[in-house]
Design goal:
With 401 residues, the protein is an alpha/beta fold. The protein contains 15 helices and 12 strands. Helix content is 43%, strand content 14%. The strands form 3 sheets. A 7-stranded mixed beta sheet has the order 2-8-7-6-5-3-4, sandwiched between helices. Strands 9-12-11 form a 3-stranded antiparallel beta sheet. The radius of gyration is 22 Å and the shape is globular. The two termini are 36 Å apart.
Length: 401
């Protein structure tokens, strides 16, 4: 029997043999051509198109000019520290009583589940929930129960069988842009004496009159125990956020969650950027309206061309393809027309349902939207759309894939 070195070597060899060489033909699956200055780049999550806004750049530059703060962990931060004050500002924006910041959305999700679940508290995850939440379940040592995507009836049956626990959904799912029926999930969760956690990474900034996200805009903030946000999307920074209505949770998280205890707090220029971005986003309803307009325009047009959009409705448009070679071909063909999307392959997808994700943003012009549609129309036959659809096994409502 080989040792650890042999085991690692066999895994590396298998990856390069079976995926890089056999499946990807020696290429990197996620990297195609480099976009040029006139390219339409739809691989980013800067939905409001504000990442280079002068106010944000100026806020970071001013902070960097005088940045001398030593690195330290969150439990050492006092109540008047800029990060602590920013936590309160984000909580107010999302109509919550308290908030806590950490290094990333991944850390927020993993750390939250770690400290609210456990061996006797199962976690019920929508099958399209982010992988970071599964990491949190593992850290907590909790039983993990998967329920069918956006299916509150299936969730109820799982809760009936396994008992109360933590229910986790996204308000807008990152893979296909599908929207969660939040009120229905809140009702099921309450009826089963469970906690509801909503990842709002792809709705904060883009949804609601002030960009407060779907939970608050639908008046559900009092029925959702925790909300998490990756602050690297419509709010284009580098951090993670948790909000709730129990101020006592903040210290509990900072003293108990691994991401808070064993990692440094945010750097001053990060908090300066996030504070400026939050203030900007609150007043950018025009950009949100433009994003909604583009979404309502492009989605039915792409569906009319024969593309499978996987049941999505929001600004993330996923062209559901076949296997890895199929999505790489579609990506390459669209790039010839200067349209750049993001490839999603296993483990982010199933083997037979890879994705080319087009993340819309408010800066797209009408001419660029027309170019996207034209490119998708021109390449569809060469990409083999008919072949993907004809060989696909039908998926019933809520069936796991």
């Amino acid at each position: 029997m080989g040792g650890a070195r042999d085991h690692l070597r066999s895994r590396l060899d298998a990856f390069h043999r079976d995926r890089v060489t056999a499946t990807w033909a020696g290429r990197r699956a996620l990297q195609g051509r480099a976009p040029g200055p006139s390219s339409i780049v739809l691989t980013r999550n800067d939905y409001l198109n504000i990442s280079g806004h002068p106010r944000l750049v100026d806020a970071m530059a001013r902070s960097l000019d005088g940045e001398t703060a030593p690195l330290q962990a969150a439990p050492f931060l006092r109540d008047d520290h800029p990060q602590t004050l920013l936590e309160g500002a984000f909580a107010r924006h999302l109509k919550a009583a308290a908030g806590v910041l950490c290094q990333s959305g991944w850390m927020a999700n993993a750390g939250l589940i770690q400290v609210i679940a456990g061996p006797d508290v199962p976690v019920y995850l929508d099958q399209r929930a982010h992988a970071s939440l599964r990491t949190g379940v593992q850290l907590a040592g909790a039983p993990m129960k998967i329920f069918r995507h956006n299916d509150p009836v299936h969730l109820a049956s799982r809760l009936d069988r396994h008992g109360p626990g933590v229910v986790v959904v996204d308000s807008v799912y990152s893979s296909h842009g599908s929207r969660c029926p939040l009120a229905e999930f809140a009702e099921v969760t309450e009826r089963h004496d469970s906690l509801l956690v909503v990842d709002e990474s792809h709705s904060v900034g883009t949804h609601g009159p002030r960009g407060e996200g779907l939970v608050a805009s639908e008046g559900l903030e009092g029925r959702v125990a925790f909300r998490t946000v990756s602050l690297s999307k419509a709010i284009p920074g580098r951090a993670g956020l948790i909000v709730c209505d129990d101020p006592g949770f903040v210290d509990y998280f900072k003293y108990q969650a691994g991401p808070a205890v064993f990692s440094s707090a945010l750097l001053p220029h990060d908090t300066a950027l996030l504070a400026a971005a939050l203030e900007l986003v609150e007043h950018e309803e025009g950009r949100r309206a433009r994003l909604r307009e583009l979404t309502a325009w492009l989605r039915p047009e792409l569906a009319g061309l024969g593309y499978d959009l996987g049941g999505g409705t929001e600004q993330i448009i996923a062209l559901e393809v076949g296997r890895e070679a199929d999505v790489m071909l579609l990506r390459d063909l669209l790039e010839r027309h200067d349209v750049f999307g993001a490839v999603f392959v296993p483990p982010a997808t199933s083997v037979t349902r890879t994705l080319l994700r087009l993340s819309l943003h408010a800066g797209l012009t009408d001419a660029e939207a027309e170019q996207i549609l034209h490119a998708c129309a021109v390449v569809r036959d060469e990409a083999g759309i008919a072949g993907w659809l004809s060989t696909r096994r039908p998926v019933a409502r809520g069936q796991a894939t």
